[in-house]
Write a structure and sequence with these properties.
Layout (H helix, E strand, L loop, with lengths): L1 H28 L4 H8 L9 E5 L2 H10 L6 E5 L14 H9 L2 E4 L9 H9 L3 E4 L2 H5 L25 H18 L4 H12 L2 H12 L8 E6 L3 H7 L2 E6 L9 H13 L4 E2 L8 H12 L5 E2 L19 H18 L19 H4 L6
Parallel strand pairs: 1-2, 1-3, 3-4, 5-6, 7-8
Helix pairs in contact: 7-8, 7-9, 9-13, 11-12
Bound molecules: zinc ion.
């Protein structure tokens, strides 16, 4: 009795296998693939009509736009605009609603988005793919560690990893792979976009490196309001000094300002920089204090982009433009202060092209 039942099961299994194999062979020759069907009939990420992506920071929005170019029915919702500080940004009700609807959330990670942890935990439970852009940089061992972000977050990695284009190359490739996996019907487009964009990072790095290393080594100090430029400094051979630490969550105190003033006077630093996402008051307080002690220090020829990029549709609203704009700002500011620098020609094959207003600077005197 038992034996017959087993035989029957085996026969049934063989029969089912044969049917399944026949079906596969047929579809591979004449019918669309499963991926093509998924995209056309609205399954997978297209189940509700569109592949919905939420991007937290301006960098996340930029990379999501670039890598999904040419794919239909992708909806990208950016949360933070230009000039917004991601350390302090609280997700709004509409942000949370957008993330609840999303198939994928792209964020920076390493605690940059300091107020998102609870929301992300809830979204993960719902099965939303939460993609950290910093993951491949961390996994590759390229993060800079040993920092303190808050009283609770001690000995953590510096979250501002994107300031080394070699790190951004890893991020681009990794996101391309993640998109290809979640939306396999369009994997070829994501892979081609990611490959082309990642290839731009080497010429971008080389251009910035050539310019920034033209400043004499003993004069390469970048003084800013918060400590966003460690990776920038490590990539291009500059020393960093910031009034505030890695995060902007704690306010700068009198001691922080005096420490920066002493550093500027001690190292005869000619320029300090304001960041687009941080109010200028602490940098202004430093300049006043340096002058009160008989020193002098200039303010950069324009703002630096630290945690937020420029307005969408502008040169600095793109990753490459943001990085280049920062390099131009540093080099031109040092040039205005009388330091001998070389600003290299912008590589012809690198896009976008810097606008004239960025190339021609008025030193203001
Ligand atoms: Zn920051």
């Amino acid at each position: 009795m038992f034996k017959n039942k087993l035989m029957f099961s085996l026969l049934l299994l063989l029969l089912l296998t044969a049917v399944a194999c026949g079906g596969t062979a047929e579809s591979s020759s004449t019918e669309p693939t499963a991926d093509e069907v998924a995209a056309a009939d609205g399954s997978g990420v297209y189940a509700d009509g569109a592949f919905k992506i939420v991007a937290t920071t301006t960098q996340a929005n930029d990379i999501a736009q670039i890598l999904t170019e040419g794919v239909n029915n992708v909806e990208i919702t950016p949360l933070m605009g230009a000039g917004v500080d991601p350390h302090l940004y609280q997700p709004t009700e509409s942000d949370i609603a957008a993330m609840n609807e999303a198939d994928m959330v792209i964020y920076s990670g390493l605690f940059l988005e300091g107020q998102f942890d609870t929301v992300f935990a809830a979204l993960r439970e719902q099965g939303v793919l939460i993609h950290a852009m910093s993951d491949p940089v961390k996994q590759g061992g390229f993060t800079i560690g040993g920092f303190e972000l808050s009283d609770e977050l001690v000995d953590v990695d510096d979250p501002h990893f994107w300031f080394d284009p070699r790190n951004w190359e890893l991020t681009v490739t990794d996101l391309g792979e993640a998109l290809a996996e979640i939306d396999p019907a369009n994997s070829d487009t994501y892979t081609a976009n990611a490959t082309a964009y990642a290839a731009m990072m080497t010429p971008l790095y080389e251009w910035a490196n050539q310019g920034l290393r033209s400043v004499p080594e003993g004069q390469r100090y970048l003084v800013t309001s918060h400590d966003a430029f460690q990776y920038f400094g490590a990539a291009f051979g500059w020393q960093m000094e910031a009034i505030q630490g890695l995060s902007t969550e704690d306010e700068a105190g009198v001691g922080d300002i005096q420490g920066t003033v002493d550093f500027i006077i001690g190292n005869q630093i000619p320029v300090v920089f304001v960041e687009s996402s941080i109010p200028p008051d602490t940098i202004e307080a430093v300049i006043e204090a340096v002058e009160a002690e008989g020193g002098s220090v200039r303010i950069g020829v324009r703002e630096m982009y630290s945690d937020a990029m420029g307005e969408p549709g502008t040169f600095a609203g793109t990753y490459a433009g943001m990085l280049a704009s920062n390099a131009y700002t540093v080099l031109q500011s040092y040039q205005c202060a009388g330091v001998d620098v070389t600003i290299p020609e912008w590589p012809a094959d690198l896009t976008p092209t810097p606008p004239e207003a960025l190339l021609n600077v008025d030193c203001g005197e």
